[in-house]
Design goal:
Elements lengths: L7 H4 L11 H7 L14 E6 L8 H7 L10 E5 L6 E5 L5 E6 L5 H11 L4 H7 L4
Length: about 130
């Protein structure tokens, strides 16, 4: 593969194949994705919703009750009485930076959004597993 053709977003897919040890090298020689700098990424996110509203938002219910949230260790789910579904994007200290209404989103849209806007925690996990 030509170095110029390797997009940095491709490096994030190495973990799926058990090749996360190659990620750092991949990031050293990849080309930045077009528009990559325009996308702001956040260390934490929280999805807030009321379980009483699951009937009105079955796609949000499907996301929350599936295995998908487990893919995002820096995502928390909070149940707040009477609240329509929202996602809060936060800085490392937990201060809310953005709030988005997600009542019209489907499960794939929620997952894609989190993949795009949540920082990866792979580096931190890798360091924890390599204590001497």
């Amino acid at each position: 593969m030509n170095k110029g053709n390797l997009l940095c977003s491709t490096c994030d897919h190495l973990k799926k194949f058990g090749l996360e040890v190659m990620r750092e090298n991949c990031l050293n020689c990849c080309s930045r994705d077009e528009g990559e700098s325009a996308i702001k990424r956040y260390p934490k996110a929280r999805l807030e919703v009321c379980t009483c509203k699951f009937g009105a938002y079955p796609q949000i219910q499907a996301f929350v009750q599936s295995e998908r949230p487990a893919k995002f260790p820096n995502l928390t789910i909070r149940y707040i009485r009477g609240l329509d579904p929202i996602i809060k994007l936060m800085d490392a200290s937990g201060n809310v930076q953005e709030v988005l209404a997600i009542e019209k989103w489907d499960t794939d849209a929620v997952e894609e959004f989190l993949n795009t806007h949540l920082e990866s925690v792979e580096k931190e996990d890798y360091l924890r597993t390599n204590h001497v």
